[in-house]
Amino acid sequence: MRRLLLSGLLLCVALGASAQEKKKTAWPLSLADGLPKELPGFAAAPSDPLPNTDENDMGVFTEVSRFFQQIESQNVTRQFRLVVQDYGDKQKDLEPLLRKAMSEADKAPGVEMKEVKVSGHTAFAATDKTGPNPTTLVTVIVLPSRLVLAQGANVDRETALKLLGKVDYATVAATK
Questions:
Q1: In sequence order, what are the beta bridge partners of 127?
Q2: What is the model's pLDDT at position 23?
């Protein structure tokens, strides 16, 4: 009798674990699977915004994001947002359009541009230092038609690049 109860209990545990492993996030929420849920020193927003579809000069895209904040004092707050943008068209190559946009941004006074590698991927980092606090935007090309963006308010380029190291780029690339 004990064996039967023990076998039944183990079967229930195994089925429960199996069901959890098979649970997958549906598109487009699955785009966020590669984004970290936590960042060192930052508090995550209590919930993620819903996926959004929008359009810019590069085309129509679907995006998901996570928001983080660090409050150091009454006067010092840092905000950081990670975004995955998917342009859908597998034949689309966003790199030439991004290079053009970055070249134009580099002409603006007080903006520092730098091409960098983030986990082996080409990335463009722009930091606007015209205000009292830096604003940084880093665009990482994960696939020709899929980007990871980091948007930081009161976050410098080096900090943004370090935080981008927490993204699972293989998962972002593999999401369908």
A1: 112, 136
A2: 59
| DSSP code of residue 18 | H
Phi, psi dihedral angles at 170 (to 5 degrees): -65, -40
Q: One-letter amino acid identity for 175? A: T
Cα–Cα distance for residue pair 126/105, rounded to 1 Å: 8
**Domains of the chain listed by start with CATH number:** 24-174 (2.60.120)
What CA–CA distances, in Å, run from 110 to 67, 100, 106, 115?
A: 26, 18, 9, 17
* Half-sphere exposure for 55 (CA within 13 Å, toward CB): 2
DSSP letter at 154 equals: S
pTM > 0.90: no
CA distance 115 to 113: 7
138 is written with which tokens?
């880093």
Bridge partner residues of 69 (DSSP): 43, 79
Q: Residue 98 and residue 68: Cα distance in Å, rounded?
A: 25
Letter string b/e over residues 118-137, b meaning 16 or more CB atoms within 10 A of that residue's CB: beebebbbbbbeeeeebbbb
The 10s digit of each residue's pLDDT in 139-148 is: 999 999 999 9
